[in-house]
Amino acid sequence: MSKNRNLSASQRIPPLVAHLVSDRAKKALDVVEKFVEEDCIPTEGVWQTQLGTTTEQRFNTHPHVMEELKDKAKKLGLWNMFLPKNHFKEGAGFSNIEYGLMAEVLARSGLASEATNCAAPDTGNMEVLAKYGTDAQKKQWLAPLLNGEIRSAFLMTEPDIASSDATNINLRIVKEGNSWVLNGSKWWSSGAGDPRCKVYIVMGKNDPDNKNPYLQQSVILVPASTPGITIHRMLSVFGYDDAPHGHGHITFENVRVPLDHIVLGPGKGFEIIQGRLGPGRIHHAMRSIGAAEKALDYFIARINDPKKTTFGKPLHEHEIMVERLAKSRIEIDAARLIVLNAALAIDNGNAATAKKEIAQAKVLVPEALANTLDRAIQAWGAAGVCQDTPLANMWAHARTMRIVDGPDEVHLLQLGKNENKRAQVVIEKLEKQSKAKAAALSAKGLEKKDILYIGKSTGPGSKL
Ligand SMILES: Cc1cc2nc3c(=O)[nH]c(=O)nc-3n(C[C@H](O)[C@H](O)[C@H](O)COP(=O)(O)OP(=O)(O)OC[C@H]3O[C@@H](n4cnc5c(N)ncnc54)[C@H](O)[C@@H]3O)c2cc1C
């Protein structure tokens, strides 16, 4: 094992995937790390202060210092790294594996993903536009998004239905003359609070009577300034407002957009959301690994704090703490491999062919992150649940990972059902093995014996 405990990001690449990472990506990875450590993390306090304190301020401005970070990131060539090179020509030319390693480092600062134009929900929305948009849609929305000039929101979830079953999505889309007319409610519209959010990608129902429930939905691009839209309130995440981004509760009342604002065509809603949510899920998972590493740093810092001893020794001399540290290291390293495996599956195919691997990462990684955060919070005692460390805020967001982009249960159900499709093959294989063993015994003139057979009996019972 290396004695150097301060390895750079490129030196920490897991050996299993190192050969899949180009020299250019390795260099960029170290530049990302330097940018995060030397520019983003030191700027976090300035950003918070510029954000303001009142709801009015926090959702009407965006901290100007973010634009300075974006300028610097662009100069360093750290821009749009999330768009994988084998699927899109518009990105920075990295694979999903390479971006996965970068996203992990970006997650160490709450500012870094946006500073490099790699922040959700824009990343997924840009993928939708790049993959399915017409030339006109790309010119109007993709170009300014790729340049970081505007932001966007993805509006699928609704307050009055169970949205994890997307066939329930109910916002009504009706064709009237040259327009689509939208009526309905959405909530958890992340990013809608930001004054720079100029476009909503809205999923709704245009063909409710179609016998195929997967062809009833469409996706429409709605400029945020279209008349008839009301953002009623922002929703908090365990009390955090996530400003200026926020999560909006929005209604649409006779919102009219031209017919060419539909994406891909009527009835293509499901196809589009499947294409969008796959990469979105893996990006969340990649960032969660970075968050887990950050939580582990806080854990280590606290258990080695010489000022805070209990029962005569620092926490790291209490064995239970070292054991927790080891468990976190194992869980994070395992989770990273699951994420990189999913990234590789997308690189080798696409998000649809990598569905299984993405679902595995979507379920496993938040668990690893939550476990490490829980241990770190515990080690910090009361300080861990307040604003003096980032742990409480990180925990709040980690907890949502088991719900966003479809709750765990839905992914587990799908994974379990697919795995169970092997049932017939498994049963036949085991029967074949059993018969083969019996045949091998008989070929040697032997009989199957249970060495634990005792056959001990008290004899027949007495007759009445
Ligand atoms: C921080 C945050 C950000 C979000 N951002 C966005 C966004 O930008 N855009 C957007 O459209 N949405 C967004 N969402 C919403 C999110 O995607 C939904 O909350 C999620 O899909 C679940 O839908 P629901 O809340 O309607 O829960 P429901 O569908 O009502 O499900 C409730 C619960 O039922 C259980 N359940 C569901 N299906 C099954 C099953 N098959 N088997 C067993 N149990 C099941 C699960 O425990 C689930 O949590 C966000 C949510 C959060 C918390």
Automatic annotation (TrEMBL):
Lineage: superkingdom: Eukaryota
Domain Acyl-CoA oxidase/dehydrogenase middle: 153-255
Domain Acyl-CoA dehydrogenase/oxidase C-terminal: 267-417
Family: Belongs to the acyl-CoA dehydrogenase family.
Pfam families attached to this UniProt entry: Acyl-CoA_dh_1, Acyl-CoA_dh_M, Acyl-CoA_dh_N
Entry keywords, A to Z: FAD, Flavoprotein, Oxidoreductase
Protein name, entry field: Acyl-CoA dehydrogenase family protein
Organism encoding this protein: Microthyrium microscopicum
GO aspect biological process, one term: fatty acid beta-oxidation using acyl-CoA dehydrogenase
Cofactor(s) required for function per UniProt: FAD
InterPro entries found in the cross-reference section: Acyl-CoA_dehydrogenase, Acyl-CoA_Oxase/DH_mid-dom, Acyl-CoA_Oxase/DH_mid-dom_sf, AcylCo_DH-like_C, AcylCo_DH/oxidase_C, AcylCoA_DH/ox_N, AcylCoA_DH/ox_N_sf, AcylCoA_DH/oxidase_NM_dom_sf
GO-annotated cellular components: cytoplasm
GO molecular function: acyl-CoA dehydrogenase activity; flavin adenine dinucleotide binding
PANTHER family attached to this UniProt entry: ACYL-COA DEHYDROGENASE NM DOMAIN-LIKE PROTEIN, MEDIUM-CHAIN SPECIFIC ACYL-COA DEHYDROGENASE, MITOCHONDRIAL-RELATED
Domain Acyl-CoA dehydrogenase/oxidase N-terminal: 26-149
